């Protein structure tokens, strides 16, 4: 039984450790998009290289995050968390020193491995260490501080890009890690909750990551139409099929397929794929649109996107409470429609756009849509399965959200006709951005229709998320461990 009280010195050190660790991954996910135009110019990179700068990280993170959680359960959550923090910092240093786009992309993939180790562990340490009576408050503080980090992330990223330079977007992680790791080793108790017997599903994790990588490569490079691209697409689909077969036959799979026997769980994950594909595409392209087409600085572009995060931070807890009262069907139907309307309003953002008249209204509508749907989406995922599988369900949903985002970043430039030099050509990029917003809005409408047709009110005694405040839609909250059912307050 965890027995560290939050008000104790050790409890505060544990909270600090988890906030620092999660902030590394959170800041990285929110600031890199702002830096992309400057990275492209500095390294003479084409649009495909910028796509890989985002997706190399997401491929390894999405493919290995479930395995990272299992490693913490088996070998010790603190140990794996600290390894992840140091790994992430080392990869960040390599990113900051990268002499060319190829090295940067490889370092980003290594960053994703570190993220897969530290991300599940940040919240799992609270779950394993903090007394149950204080856990809800601890998770709320963890999420709130993370939201503040998400809010300042684009601002900090823009300031770094316009000031010291884009490399500091990555180098910033090094001092955070040098502070976080010693604090964790000194003040956080070790814990482990997995079974000692059985084997890790390394083959499943590898097949999942390979499938994502090959499909992403095929989508990004599809414009070339070469035999290598075709072979990558076929091999990626074959790896995905092999992943399903391996997970079906293994006695201890990373992703037990029987969890999808829950119709509601399957449906909510379809909604997740639609929603986070649209979000991933939007945040990748919006930062470029504001800089390439509108002509704003990195700092101005990063600051411009703050309203969505601020609304999430201020209102998501209330949205979760509303979802508890009226059920998830209405929020999960209306939320994507609001987001779709916000993205269509972004069609007004072009050369000479005004922030107050053009950008802000779109972001406010988009942010209200995010507020409406994200908290009920998390709650419905957990409510769709037995409480003993809540951690697994949230992990699968988390991985699905990240996979959807990376596929969107890979596919949208292809679907909208962006050429390799599009981000250097304002008129061409503007035309493609408008087509992309229409596609994102369409995917959100599909998600809304799926939610309306399939989502129903969960049982009153189902598992509820302890994490009710969402600071960043770019990083879906990951519930820690396998929890006893907890009721909404």
Automatic annotation (TrEMBL):
Residues 14-459 form the Major facilitator superfamily (MFS) profile domain. The chain crosses the membrane at residues 12-36, 48-68, 80-99, 105-126, 138-160, 166-188, 200-220, 226-246, 267-288, 294-317, 329-347, 359-383, 395-416, 436-455. Coiled coil: none annotated. The keyword Transcription does not apply. Keywords: Antibiotic resistance, Cell membrane, Membrane, Transmembrane, Transmembrane helix, Transport. Its main location: membrane. The keyword tRNA processing does not apply. It holds the Pfam family MFS_1. It is found in: Cell membrane. Signal peptide: none annotated. It is a multi-pass membrane protein. PANTHER family: EXPORT PROTEIN, MAJOR FACILITATOR SUPERFAMILY MULTIDRUG TRANSPORTER MFSC. This is MFS transporter. It comes from Streptomyces marokkonensis. The lineage of its organism: Bacteria, Bacillati, Actinomycetota, Actinomycetes, Kitasatosporales.
